[in-house]
Design goal:
β11 and β12 form a beta hairpin. The strands form 3 sheets. A 6-stranded mixed sheet has the order 5-13-9-6-8-7. It is globular and about 80 Å long. The protein has 322 residues and is an alpha+beta fold. It has a single domain, classed as phage-related protein like fold. It contains 7 helices and 13 strands. The chain is 20% helix and 22% strand.
């Protein structure tokens, strides 16, 4: 009698298992926040609790024959413009008991009482809130309107509302262009340069501020026109460019994203008023025994103004909403 060896194929049977999800990792991923640029460029006036005056002076020079009969001529004129700030802030409350039963409980301290007193992922949460705060404030600086009934942009009037042709600013869109495109961007920005008030164009902090969309259209147009000697890597990281054939620097400011507006003037005359600049990157964090919650709070003051409306140029497309 001969014996035959039976050969069987063995394999893992995982049909009774659910898909594995790794919830042990301590890495926390946060949503990207667009960086803010405006406050890095413009003038900041501190020490404003409610309202302060931008003190202005103007004068004239009148030449005459330099003899013994010269007479006094020309006035030194003092005026002011009110810079009004409003108190603003945000507050968040965290109850760590809400984290029970989820992967988030892995970060809690041991002990039913002790676990209430520590904010998990504190560094990530704080840094993320500060980034969101910076971004929201950048938008508010430009797009706020105190006539709005609610929302982050309803506390004060931003530059877009203050700086209009009807309020006395210079109209830079003399050709009545409907909108900036990838084919007319260079010509449109050059027209802004040509229409800039002379006193502003000759200053050392002369600049044009616009949103991401307009800036990208300008970059595309410049590339198509072969104006560039930069590498693609440089172009991808640029947030400003000197308009070829001019000395006007065009800055991309994300507070103007979504709008076709562009503003030309001296950076030092775009003024942001506040009580203390350190308030923007400072958060208070504390544990309250009264309700077993951890709180985060930020408070600051904010408002904008310019000293001379007739030294600010405004571009807006004829097809844009007012």
């Amino acid at each position: 009698m001969s014996l035959k060896k039976k050969i069987e194929n063995f394999a893992y049977d995982v049909s009774g298992l659910g898909a594995y999800v790794d919830e042990q990792s301590e890495e926390l991923l946060v949503k990207q926040v667009t960086s803010a640029q405006t406050l890095q460029l413009i003038n900041i006036q501190e020490g404003v609790k409610s309202s302060a005056e931008l003190k202005l002076m103007d004068d004239t020079i009148t030449y005459q024959t330099g003899d013994c009969d010269m007479t006094a001529s020309g006035d030194t004129v003092f005026t002011d413009r009110a810079l009004t700030v409003v108190p603003m802030g945000f507050k968040k409350g965290f109850c760590n008991k809400d984290l029970d039963g989820f992967w988030t409980q892995l970060q809690l301290r041991a002990g039913a009482m002790d676990e209430d007193k520590e904010l998990i992922f504190e560094e990530e949460i704080v840094n993320y809130l500060l980034a969101k705060h910076s971004r929201a404030l950048d938008v508010a600086i430009w797009q706020s309107d105190s006539a709005l009934s609610s929302g982050n942009n309803s506390f004060f009037d931003g530059f877009c509302k203050i700086l209009t042709v009807s309020n006395g600013c210079v109209d830079l869109n003399s050709s009545s262009t409907a909108a900036i495109t990838t084919s007319n961007a260079y010509d449109t920005f050059y027209e802004m340069f040509e229409n800039t008030p002379t006193a502003v164009a000759e200053s050392d902090d002369y600049a044009c501020l616009t949103g991401r969309e307009n800036f990208n259209k300008l970059m595309k147009n410049l590339v198509d026109l072969n104006f560039f000697h930069y590498s693609p890597a440089q172009i991808a990281t640029m947030d400003r460019v000197i308009l070829p054939g001019t000395d006007m620097t065009v800055y991309k400011v994300n507070g103007l994203n979504g709008k076709d507006d562009a503003f030309v003037g001296r950076l030092s005359e775009f003024t942001f008023g506040t009580d203390l600049t350190g308030d923007f990157d400072t958060l208070e964090i504390w544990y309250s025994q009264d309700d077993d919650k951890i709180y985060i709070r930020s408070k600051f003051r904010a408002g904008v103004q310019v000293p001379f409306l007739d030294q600010i140029g405004v571009w807006q497309g004829t097809s844009s909403p007012s």
